[in-house]
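> forwarded from #structure-qc
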């Protein structure tokens, strides 16, 4: 299970890119992110994977919860 709850991401402490994205990915399901150039798809994936810091990005609100079940 993966859950994004109202996630906000800011680059360089100034550029607000994600303004509160929420999504749920249930166990063993696949979802697709659709959006125009610059909509924030890659930023969303970087927030999930913990790769914002090298790009001077930061989650400033909300939460990313990832859990895995053993069943
Ligand atoms: N390291 C960064 N520093 C500042 N702004 C950034 C940075 N990376 C992305 N942005 C800005 O954040 C916004 C979202 O970019 P992002 O790359 O997440 O979009 P995307 O949906 O993946 O776009 P594309 O379809 O072109 O891949 C854009 O306005 C982009 O210019
Ligand atoms: Mg991208």
């Amino acid at each position: 299970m993966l859950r994004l709850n109202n996630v906000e991401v800011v680059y360089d402490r100034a550029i607000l890119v994600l303004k509160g994205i929420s999504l749920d990915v249930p166990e063993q399901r696949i979802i697709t992110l659709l959006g125009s150039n610059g909509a924030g798809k890659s930023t969303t994936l970087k927030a999930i994977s913990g790769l914002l810091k090298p790009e001077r990005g930061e989650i400033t609100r909300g939460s990313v919860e990832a859990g895995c079940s053993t069943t």
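QC bot note: The first strand starts at residue 2 and ends at 11. Strands lie at 2-11, 15-25, 57-66.
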